[in-house]
Amino acid sequence: MSLQEHLAELERRHAALDRELQEALAHPSTDTTQLAELKRKKLQLKDEIQRIRESEKAS
Length: 59
Prior knowledge:
0% strand, elongated
């Protein structure tokens, strides 16, 4: 898998987590622990995407 393909996959996963998080927020019965986990995963992906983009710029 090329770096661009990996980046695209990370972006797809980030978008999917965003949709899942928005859906969970729309339901008041959603567990706060579940929300925190979704937010944590989304942030981890965002950080990884940013690291890859910065390393591409430095190359």
